[in-house]
Design a protein that fits this description.
Structural class: alpha/beta
Radius of gyration: 18 Å
Number of helices: 14
Helix content: 40-55%
Shape: globular
Distance between the termini: 44 Å
């Protein structure tokens, strides 16, 4: 695989942030003392669960749609998603006056399907996650739609970098930042933006860690294999972290700028959801709770007194999943 020589630069991330910032929330950056005391850290939550449409995804979607040329923007856009990206593209497309088709797996959360339709998208349900990808590409090819990749594209990465730039302003010293990983667009953007801003080296150095479910370890497999990996199957309650592959470009960013990618179990994710609900009064979907789970269960190496940030990436949890977390999530510590 040829090395990347043209990483996104500071001006790329700054430009995306200027475009995205007026249209989204600067989400809260909250102290979480319960987790901090238990881990010996100064612990913080970056609450993207309180973002427009309930997840971080609008940042990349807005920048991706804004990056289309006039001819592309005039065509209907199509994307694929388990839920949060579908909602984000539907919302961003409507703001831009564009029509959107979102292809979702047949097993997608009913509430996320309904929300994507409510934001104005035409929703197509198609098979598994891998089959939904193929259907979205088929629609783009056969019907002349503009395909928006949910994670493996520079405009998406640049848009997600705005989260990293916000955290860089909130954190003055060294920190470990833990980011949930699905296809890798979010962690690529955060790590890429921090690298471009010079915050991954020198004074005030930040270390970025990714976390995946044990049942959907596409980025972990990619790092082990030295290339972007595709999974034959995924099995996890964290639907937002279960695409069938890691992005090619995202993998390269992770390999270059991320310290490590660790794994957590579904049981640990449920425990993290429960902790967030009962102690932080925060509703997180399984994907959004994964970074907290990694800190709770010691997957990420942190030093005493170090700042540790868990990115709560989404809050679009079905009622039954919230109830399950309260009933089945292990009490901690």
């Amino acid at each position: 695989m040829a090395p990347v020589t043209n990483w996104l630069k500071a001006e790329d991330f700054d430009g995306a942030r200027r475009l995205v910032a007026p249209q989204v929330h600067r989400t809260p950056f909250l102290s979480f003392r319960t987790l901090g005391r238990a881990t010996g850290t100064s612990c913080w939550l970056k609450c993207e669960n309180l973002q427009k449409t309930g997840s971080f995804k609008v940042r990349g979607a807005l920048n991706a749609i804004a990056s289309l040329d006039r001819a592309e923007a005039a065509r209907q856009v199509v994307t694929v998603s388990a839920g949060n990206h579908a909602q984000a593209v539907a919302w961003a497309a409507r703001r831009a006056g564009a029509r959107a088709v979102v292809v979702m797996p047949e097993g997608a959360s009913r509430s996320k399907v309904a929300a994507a339709g409510g934001y104005g998208a035409e929703v197509v349900l198609s098979g598994t996650a891998a089959e939904a990808f193929r259907e979205a590409l088929r629609l783009a090819d056969e019907e002349g739609l503009t395909f928006l990749h949910p994670f493996d594209a520079e405009p998406v990465i640049a848009g997600h970098g705005s989260t990293g730039l916000e955290m860089a302003e909130d954190l003055r010293g060294e920190a470990a930042i833990v980011v949930p990983v699905g296809g890798g667009g979010q962690i690529a953007g955060i790590a890429g933006a921090l690298a471009a801003a010079g915050r991954l080296s020198g004074r005030g150095r930040m270390r970025v860690f990714g976390v995946e479910p044990e049942g959907a370890p596409s980025m972990r497999r990619s790092l082990d294999a030295g290339r972007a990996a595709t999974l034959a199957d995924t099995r996890t309650i964290a639907d937002g972290l279960a695409p069938p592959m890691a992005g090619e470009l995202n993998y390269r960013y992770v390999a270059e700028f991320v310290e490590d990618v660790v794994l957590v179990s579904d049981e640990e994710i449920l425990s993290a959801m429960r902790l967030l609900l009962t102690r932080a009064k925060i509703v997180a979907e399984p994907s959004g709770a994964a970074a907290v789970a990694a800190l709770m269960w010691g997957r990420v190496p942190v030093s005493p007194g170090e700042a540790a940030v868990a990115l709560v990436s989404g809050g679009n949890a079905d009622d039954d999943m919230v109830v399950r977390a309260l009933r089945e999530g292990a009490r901690w510590p």
